[in-house]
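Feature request, filed as a ticket because there's no other form

It would be nice if the structure record came with a short human-readable summary line next to the tokens. Right now we just get the raw output. Example of a typical job, pasted below so the devs can see what we mean:
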Amino acid sequence: MTPLTLLPHNIYRRIIYQLSLEDIEIRRKIILIYLFSSIGFGFLFVFGISALLNDRNTIATATLTASAVTLINFILLLATSNHARASYGVSLIIISVSLFLVINGGVSNTGLLWTYSAIPLVLFLHGHTRGTALLVLFLLASALIMYIPNDMYAHANYPTALKIRYIASYIALLLMTLVYEYIAHQTYERWRKLSDLFAAQARTDVLTGISNRRDIVEKINYENVRAKRRGEQYSILLIDIDHFKKINDQYGHDAGDVTLITVANTISNALFQRDLIGRWGGEEFLVILPDTNPDNAAQAADKIRTIVSETVIEYADQQITATISIGLATSDENYTPDIYIKVADNCLYNAKARGRNRVSSIFLAD
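Raw output as currently delivered:
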């Protein structure tokens, strides 16, 4: 059982909900903030009460104040989900407590031992550059405090050997942690890039480089939700290369692949930036035209059809021409994307039945 699962159930559910919305690196930081806030609050509160019972009022005041600030930081994170602010809150708390322990010395000058905990936490929360800068500033401040004569400023009295060993060991631990965090960060970045590459490959048609069927289905579902929310229409073009089998039979399958690639590129170049295209299967393509009514969609479709028919496909010193047939459907708030695709497919069948190389928005029932 982790410290997080010991929290009240409604708070635990809130934390899990926040974590589900973030990427893996941010999730790790959020978990660390929650863990420090819950564990840190417990330690500081217990030490504060213990110091209060033993009449160490200065330590009690400092630790109880820090525990209260930690609790407030925890509550603000739950309420606002502002993880960046919470990160600085955590760092401010631990560095402030560490500086107090350097000045006060704690019990028998053992307060210095608690300051090491700031190193991995601050480096992880703020990265190598900012984290190192904060820790170096803390170390300089600590060294200044320890070496200021007591008659100038009252603070714990540390033996010279302890001062030297503390500063040296702090630097050594900082360097080792910095190297570890740097290697871990580089490993994460390589993993993230590979993950992004694999994700892109899973959504991309290998031959044409456009969206595959899985990706275009997700996009049309997203567009359907977006259009309904905004009260807009969108149109679908289902496009098929005419007599594609004849191209394969006459010129070979490699020529067929070149034809598919060229037609996909030609259609893509004819679209606006907001429009979406994917390979639907075989020699079929599906185009989504956001915020487009039937008339504008018909104009766009005929433009695409004309450009493709005028495009010369170069293959092995041969020139190939291809035409396309297009079925058009426009969204209606009463139906689902599957229905619109079915309508576009029937319109495509009508375009082919009427001689190909044309656009049709006439629905033929099964």
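Something like this underneath would help us a lot:
Strands lie at 235-241, 276-281, 284-289, 312-315, 318-321, 324-330, 359-360.
Confidence is low (pLDDT under 50) at residues 15-22.
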